[in-house]
Write a structure and sequence with these properties.
The chain is mostly helical. It has ten helices and no strands. Helix 8 (153-162) packs antiparallel against helix 10.
């Protein structure tokens, strides 16, 4: 009786190793970004994953393909809790919950979001995905705060902009506010914008 593996078993083993290598490479890129390297090179990704540079491009056609796979992995952690806010709650409570949900999302994904903002100008995939996430957040905000529909369009846009990652990052990074202070400022500002005559 032969101990050799069947061709199907060999193929399955190679596929499993290949899938594992792809995952290691993508996780390495996400770890580098999360650690503050917002624009890691293919060589840095290979070094961090402890694989050769050729292995990176054997599994991925280019860096764009790594972004696409990384996005699939990251999307699993994308918190979809704004849409769970009960619209029967008082407005002030809903505003606080929207800000809290976005603060949690932005704080836990700051470097990923900054990396995306840095790269999206030269990446068709990231540009498209960034627009998709923005649309999703916009829809969730409108669902949680249906009062926006009664406001003039410019004020609606100001509210959406106030809740953007870009504005959050400006208050946190550029203006050196704590997450708690930033959230409190946004809640106060939104109450004014939503309820002002």
């Amino acid at each position: 009786m032969s101990d050799s593996l069947s061709p199907a078993t060999k193929v399955d083993g190679r596929r499993l190793r290949s899938d594992r290598s792809r995952q290691v490479i993508v996780e390495a890129m996400l770890q580098l970004i999360d650690g503050g390297n917002l624009v890691p090179t293919a060589q840095q990704v290979a070094d961090h994953a402890k694989v050769g540079i050729r292995s990176v491009f054997r599994h991925f056609e280019d860096m764009e393909a790594i972004f696409a796979t990384a996005d699939e992995l990251w999307r699993k952690d994308f918190v979809d809790n704004i849409s769970d806010i009960d619209i029967k709650l008082p407005l002030k409570q809903r505003i606080a919950q929207v800000v809290s949900s976005l603060a949690q999302l932005y704080e836990s994904n700051t470097n990923i979001l900054k990396s995306t903002a840095t790269r999206r100008w030269r990446s068709a995939f990231l540009k498209q995905n960034y627009a998709k996430y923005q649309s999703r957040i916009r829809n969730d905000i409108r669902q949680a705060l249906p009062e926006l529909e009664q406001l003039p369009q410019p004020r609606q846009e100001a509210i959406i902009g106030t809740l953007s990652f870009e504005y959050w990052d400006r208050l946190r990074d550029h203006q050196s506010n704590s997450a708690e202070d930033t959230a409190a400022m946004l809640i106060d500002l939104l109450e004014i914008l939503v309820t002002a005559a």
